Amino acid sequence: LASATLVRFAPGYGVTEREVDPRWSANSIEALRQKHALHQGLPSFYFHYLSALAHGDLGESDSLKRPVRELLRQRFPVTGNSVIRGLGVAWLAAALLASLGLVIRGWFFKASATAFNSFLLSLPSAVVAMLAVHLRAPVFFAIAIVVFPRLYSYIRNLLVRAYDQPHVLAARARGLGSGAILFRHVLPLAAPPLLALLGVSFAISFGAAIPIEALCDSPGLGQLAWHAVLSRDLPLIVNVTLILSL
C-alpha cells in the first residue's frame, strides 16, 4: 500500500502517450481514462485491490495487458534460481574465509580480510551490476558479491565468539584438531544465529536482485519491477512489491 501511495503521487502519474495517439479511437481513449480513474483515488484503489487479493486475483498489468499472476509465475523462477545460486556462492565464500580466520589468527590476515570486506560492502548493487555487465559475469555472481560482505562479518564474529568459549579452549588444550573443534564444538554453538542469518540473507538477496536483474537485462522480477516503475504500472508495482516483501 505504501508503494501504491508513492506511485500515485509521483510526477506524471495518470498521463499516458496513448491518449494523444491518433491511431486510438475516441471510445478506446475514453475506456482508458475510465480505467485510470479507478486508480486515481487511493481509498478506491485500496478497496478494489484488497477485495480482489482476498479472492486470489492480482489484477491485470496496465502496460503489458496480461494478468499479473501470469507475469509473476513466468519471472519468479528466473529470480529464484539466481538468488539461490548467488546465496550458495556467498555463503560458501563467507564460511570458508571466516573459518580460515580461525586458523590464521594473525593481524595481517584479519586486516586484509576486513579491508577487502569493507571495499565490497561499500559497492552499491547498481555498481556491481554494471561491473557484471562489463565482465559478462552471470547474475548470480553479482548477487553473491553483494551478499558476501554482509555475511562474512557476522559469520566471523559468531565463530570467533564460539571459538573463545571455555569448553572450546579446554578442547584445544587437550590437543583436539582444528577440524574436530570446528565441527564438534564451534558450529553447534553458532548454529541458531546462523540459521536466523540464512533467513535474513534471502531478503537481502531478493533486494539486491532488483537493480542487478534490471541492469543485466535478466528476465526476472527485477526487470519486471523496473519496467513497472518506468511505465507507472500501479497493479504490477504493488504486486511485485508484495512478492519481494514476503
- CATH class of the largest domain reads Mainly Alpha
The rough form would be described as: elongated
List the total number of helices.
11
Please outline the major beta sheet.
none
CATH topology of the largest domain: MetI-like fold
Q: How would you name the oligomeric state of the polypeptide chains in this document?
A: single chain
Structural class: mainly alpha
Q: What series of H and E elements makes up the topology?
A: HHHHHHHHHHH
Task: Lay out the secondary structure.
Layout: H1 2-8, H2 26-40, H3 42-54, H4 68-103, H5 107-121, H6 125-135, H7 139-163, H8 166-173, H9 178-216, H10 221-230, H11 234-245
Helix pairs in contact: 1-11, 4-7, 4-9, 5-7, 6-7, 6-9, 7-9, 8-9, 9-10, 10-11
Provide key terms for this protein.
single chain; 246 residues; mainly alpha; MetI-like fold; 2 domains; elongated
